[in-house]
Amino acid sequence: MKPIHVGICGVGTVGGGTATVLKRNCEEIARRAGRPIVVRAAASRDLARARAALGEGVELLDDALAIARHPDIDIVVELIGGTTVAKDVVLAAIENGKHVVTANKKLIAEYGNEIFAKAQAKGVMVAFEAAVAGGIPVIKALREGLTANTIEWVAGIINGTSNFILTEMRDKGAAFADVLKEAQRLGYAEADPTFDIEGHDAAHKLTIMSAIAFGIPVQFDKAYLEGISKLDAADIKYAQELGYRIKLLGVTRRRPHGIELRVAPTLIPAKRLIANVDGVMNAVLVKGDAVGATMYYGPGAGAEPTASSVIADLVDITRLHTADPEHRVPHLAFQPSAMADLPILPIDEVETCYYLRLNAQDQPGVLADVTRLLADGGISVDAMLQKEVTDDGRADIIIITHLAVEKNVNAALAKIEALDSINGKVVKLRLEHLNG
Amino acid sequence: MKPIHVGICGVGTVGGGTATVLKRNCEEIARRAGRPIVVRAAASRDLARARAALGEGVELLDDALAIARHPDIDIVVELIGGTTVAKDVVLAAIENGKHVVTANKKLIAEYGNEIFAKAQAKGVMVAFEAAVAGGIPVIKALREGLTANTIEWVAGIINGTSNFILTEMRDKGAAFADVLKEAQRLGYAEADPTFDIEGHDAAHKLTIMSAIAFGIPVQFDKAYLEGISKLDAADIKYAQELGYRIKLLGVTRRRPHGIELRVAPTLIPAKRLIANVDGVMNAVLVKGDAVGATMYYGPGAGAEPTASSVIADLVDITRLHTADPEHRVPHLAFQPSAMADLPILPIDEVETCYYLRLNAQDQPGVLADVTRLLADGGISVDAMLQKEVTDDGRADIIIITHLAVEKNVNAALAKIEALDSINGKVVKLRLEHLNG
């Protein structure tokens, strides 16, 4: 049968990995897809490097838009990254009636609505499994595997760099800055790590999963982000004493009046399987009303893991591009005409449990004052841990709350911080029980 | 849009759960599928019970074959179980041009080849996500999510009853028989538990995953089965001392000359995530050459988790039944014309690591004799643990081997058991490192 011709835009790590895996497993992939899938052309700014990565027999161009318009290309694979050239290439490919596969989480999280509308109008598919959690087929699980369910929440460890740093901080009791240097040396963190450690990358992925889980448009601009750069090693230790681990967790949860969408360092009970996902690995836990909790675990980055997802999309398209466009799996899991208009809730409206760390003068009545202010705010205490008094006459007090609304917690904390007996700011972290 | 009409054959736990979830989530499911999915008719031997489960408005019949021939039914859901009536119903439904969804692992593992050939000829789909690992969409992951990969192995904890029993034996140090009684009292084990505890159920599921992973026909008759009923609590304790947990593990692995396909109580390093899957939960770990190791975790049984998978299949069929049959996702992941003829290897040819427990007289030279016999058989020792001598002058010796071929191990064990200094049979368990 006639091969499917792929054009790769951007021959970096993932582009090279995709070509390598397509070549190495060409027979196995053709047995599954029903026809061979071959790289016909590629565009790169560095043609010598691209030639080395792709070998002979692949047409090389220096203009990605030429791939999008290439008459012999069936599917365009966009691996350029960013939202400028990449967006132009994706829209041009769709305009030219080509299916698109992309690993670009930023592009989908920020411009997905526009891209999918255009693809729907043109009757082509845009697939993006590689954009979320690298090699883990979690988009497929959410979009197709769990269609019976009303999804209640999705929680994910979806940034390997941050998870590596947090794992090392816990295991070695080390400070954030030291571990970051180590991660950079090992190649697990970029020279400028902001995008990973401040939660942008995780929020892009979470935004996409939120849309697919709840049938809402992608809305990255409404996501709440908090990174791990200010996380204190002391809190990791205290959390552990109380039976929790701290992870950079993306949480999106259905509430009666809207959807929570937030990324922040979060406590999870140590006994949960997802709390034991360490190092650069990723995992996504999904709670559906029928199935309960299911979890998807694997490598969240890397050349061949990401290529695995890119190629799964290529095989999906190869298998199903003859299907009537109205009957294909919808881009965002729900039919475009059936999108819900549930708003993303502001962080003030979020309801969760909290970990609070106060530094207090060792004097009578402090605890009474603090617990009264919490009670006045409707916040009830689940556990409390008072640490030994230090030489300066101060002591750390750690409080774990039951469910509370964020704005109430913030209001109570403002009053607590105003007490003479409390030193400095209260550390506030969110805590998720993630009960199945 | 016109609803898809479903006919349910067998209104037991899963049938009732399927109807309940289809009704409760009808709006969410229609938003995803593009049209409503409704139960139009059902067949049951107990019409009063079926009426109670399904409510009014569903046509009830006492003959499942009448559902397979019903002119208004688009998809037949077979939940009868077994391989007699169930097989007739599935074949009759296909004959009548209807798509089929089944949760029947025994039927697919034993008669899948015949059923899929007939479905292919008739241009209909037969879907069976619910047959493996209950609510976990692992068939979809293997068949569609990991298509880029040459699958190296699949290892699964895929029988909740056995996993519950093993978890309790470990946590409470209890004997198999006592925990089985407890499991029966809690409803986690059947009155006749043979099918679960002797590995048949796990082997059915593993047979199906093996076919999909490697592109071979289903061959349940070639699977090797060993149950947990003879497992000694002492071995669970010794394994733990050595850093391992014992699980009833299904393993299917590609070797140069064939495929390993085996279910047996197996040691796994305690630090692996899958070793921490406890109670009735299921998990499947898949090693692909591109992605590395990914894991899928969730409830392996129960009314609504299983219904979740049945309905996911209904939505898949609803979305894609307009696709040209040649281009749909193949039943066993690979195109029927591209099946491999790799044989299933006999257990003698399996290569893995081993845990051996010997009961020896406390006399000089025993260890030397044992290790010499192992070395003569080409079996090298990874770790050894000698327990204290008991009052009768005997001691347990535990040996963990590196990779060895089963027939070589058996030959060496026969010689070891023939030594005067060794009491009784040597306990032999397999051990899998499951390295990503």
Automatic annotation (TrEMBL), chains A, B:
Pathway: Amino-acid biosynthesis; L-methionine biosynthesis via de novo pathway; L-homoserine from L-aspartate: step 3/3; Amino-acid biosynthesis; L-threonine biosynthesis; L-threonine from L-aspartate: step 3/5
GO function terms (MF aspect): homoserine dehydrogenase activity; NADP binding
Binding site for NADPH: 105
The enzyme's E.C. designation: 1.1.1.3
Keyword presence, DNA-binding: no
Keywords, ordered alphabetically: Amino-acid biosynthesis, Methionine biosynthesis, NADP, Oxidoreductase, Threonine biosynthesis
Entries under SUPFAM superfamilies matching the protein: ACT-like (SSF55021), Glyceraldehyde-3-phosphate dehydrogenase-like, C-terminal domain (SSF55347), NAD(P)-binding Rossmann-fold domains (SSF51735)
Domain ACT: 355-434
Residues binding NADP(+): 9-16
Active site, renumbered: 205 (proton donor)
Pfam families in the cross-refs: ACT, Homoserine_dh, NAD_binding_3
Top enzyme category: oxidoreductase
Annotated positions binding L-homoserine: 190
Family label: Belongs to the homoserine dehydrogenase family.
NCBIfam families: PRK06349.1
PANTHER family listed in its UniProt record: HOMOSERINE DEHYDROGENASE (PTHR43331)
Protein name (record): Homoserine dehydrogenase
Gene source species: Andreprevotia lacus DSM 23236
